Amino acid sequence: MPDLAAWAWVLLAVGSVVIGVSKTALPGGGTVAVAIFAAVLPARESTGTILLLLLVADLFAITTYRRHVNWRALLRLAPAVVVGLALGIAFLFVADDELVRRVIGGVLIAVVVFTLARRWLRHSVEEGGSHRVAAVAYGTLGGFTTMVANAAGPVMSMYFLAARFPVKEFLGTAAWFFFLVNLSKVPFSAGLGIITVPGMLIDLVLVPAVVAGALLGRWIANRIDQVLFERLVIVLTLVGAIYLILG
């Protein structure tokens, strides 16, 4: 077991609760957890450690919202996500951590601005030819950002938000998307040495906090207003983008 200070364990526990809540109530909030883990653990170790906790939270999310999934949207995203994952792997070979963070942060801000502009112009990704274009653009960005920094939450939140999904359909579709993507990342992360034995031991301690956060998220999701939900998603996305650029 890694020798961590008491304050470090407290921060990791808070981050784990955030992971659970983000999966069952507030997509995009997971970037806050990424920031917390990166502040406490070495960069590579934090990525592998948080990946396994994300999978635990994903299991709760797909169980909770198993009846609220838009499978057509997921199938439409799949080819672009695979391309994004491949680009992310290639990018990791040539870019340092600082460049990765700033590129992703810049992309997230651009995505928010683009999504809000489309709403202002009263358009949606479900309209006409833009439907497939949006799936390719967001899917590629989602695959890329999840591979390099576990930061696809804000990107895909903007896609599902632009598609005008109701809260539970939003959460159910996002849950299955991230479960499948995170599961596919495990062998690559293990092969790159990102998933470690010390990291897995930390995960064993933190799993109860993830479960508590997931249950809290269920309670929130059953009570949150659609407009408030969408505003929180946008705010959390911007917070994550600013952290990645400045952090």
From TrEMBL:
Q: According to Swiss-Prot or TrEMBL, what is its membrane topology? A: Multi-pass membrane protein
- Compartment list: Cell membrane
Q: Where are the transmembrane segments?
A: 36-61, 73-93, 99-121, 133-162, 201-221, 227-246
Q: Does the keyword Transport apply?
A: yes
The record's listing under Pfam families reads: TauE
Q: Where is the signal peptide?
A: none
Q: Which family does it belong to?
A: Belongs to the 4-toluene sulfonate uptake permease (TSUP) (TC 2.A.102) family.
Instruction: From the Swiss-Prot or TrEMBL record, give the protein name.
Output: Probable membrane transporter protein
Q: What is the lineage of its organism?
A: Bacteria, Bacillati, Actinomycetota, Actinomycetes, Micrococcales
